[in-house]
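thread: overnight batch results

M.L. [08:02]
morning all. the overnight job finished for the chain we discussed friday. pasting input first so we're all looking at the same thing
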Amino acid sequence: MIRGSYVALVTPFRDGEIDYNAVEGLIAMHIEQGTHGILLCGTTAETPALAGDEKERLVRFGIQKINGRVPVMVGTGSNNLPRTIAATQQASSWGAGSALVVTPYYNKPTPEGLYQFYRKVHDNTSIPIVMYNVPGRTGCKMSAETALRLAYDCPRIVALKEASGDLVLAMHVIRDAPEGFSVMSGEDALNLPLLAAGARGVISVTANIIPAQIAALCNAAACGEWDKARSLHLAQLDMHAALFVESNPIPVKQALALAGRILADVRPPLAPLSAHRLPGLTNVLRRYKLID
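M.L. [08:03]
and the structure it wrote out:
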């Protein structure tokens, strides 16, 4: 079962190239601080800005350094079916434990089109698949009905990363999904409501900077320690807000840079954090005792 705190790992850059020393350092930090799983090549990884050979090297490197200590999920989705199938097959051959497949963007598929897309990915691959519902990025919202249809018809579609902000949609999937299917919060500000409704975990941006706290939230929810979970989540709200003042992953990479973990570099079409945002982010990191 897909569960717990998965970090949507950033891709650090140095001099225009992937900084593999920093990648290794981030992986070590997450293992040490209790992150339950690592997502490579998700939205937060700036995957659209990575060339094909860069993605392959990054995924292979990440899986090698993680070395089975936690599960690895790899983002393989696109709006092109053959490319998505091929990327998912490759991720499986490299040792990924699951594939995150985003709803096809730009094409504006109907519910039947979405169903057929995911069904074909499922039928032509062998790895567990996590659907990714993020209409703010894709312009395509998956309904609860389509998600449930796929969950029942495709046994290796095992989870939904729910980042639409629609709690009712998420609760319908949680209530009606087959046994063993996971809903994962994909919007950090809604982690507690989704966990309280029965989500199995989170795929988190904020876990990049406070991994132990996000893992602790998931652990508390899994144990039914709801007072503790509520306290942790409410304490995290200001960090969630600070990390989304501009397009993800611009603020979280700047936060990691301020904490001395990586450089803040992003690739075009993203740009560095606006100067007027920096004092606010710095103040939040100080309040969380992440910097002096």
